[in-house]
Amino acid sequence: MKILIIEDDPKHFADANAFFFGREGITELVVVKTFDDARPHLFDSEYLKRKAADGVISDVTFPRWYLSKKPLQIGVAIMSLCQKRGIPCVLNTDGYHHNDELDWICTLGRELDWPEIVDCGNHPDQRIETKDWDLAWSTLQELMAAKAVTTAVGAP
Q: Where are the domains of the chain?
């Protein structure tokens, strides 16, 4: 299976590579830092001979492209594209889901039946040193398994 990880922070980027490298069942691991690098992996392309990711774990805030001056909350766009295209997706952040930056995303996600954001737990005023890659991965595996069952029985 092809897994796409979107993470721009150097520490979390390295942690993601270490956590997922050689993980059983992953045949292709793509770790990118920007929206523009992630987007081509969200659809099949016969022209580019590339298959869409089977699952995505995305940071919430990262740059649109390498020359961006300020990271944006582009994880919302990634989740929206994944939902539209039927790709299981989990948002994974080092912040707290009810802080000023993330609460609107948490609320929107609940309204749209997105998976819960994987975050730092109950630490509203701090960022964590290492993201919970294990929880993000197990959540993504559950979403992919549910998609496989749904696809097998022919449900929409």
A: 2-153
Q: Can you name the CATH fold of 2-153?
A: Rossmann fold (3.40.50)
Q: Are 4 and 38 in contact (CB under 8 A)?
A: yes
The token duo for 76 is: 């919302």
Nearest partner of 89 among 118, 62, 131, judged by Cα = 118
Name the pTM for this structure.
0.90
User: How do residues 11-65 score in pLDDT, each as one tens digit?
Assistant: 999 999 999 998 999 999 999 999 999 999 998 877 766 789 999 999 999 999 8
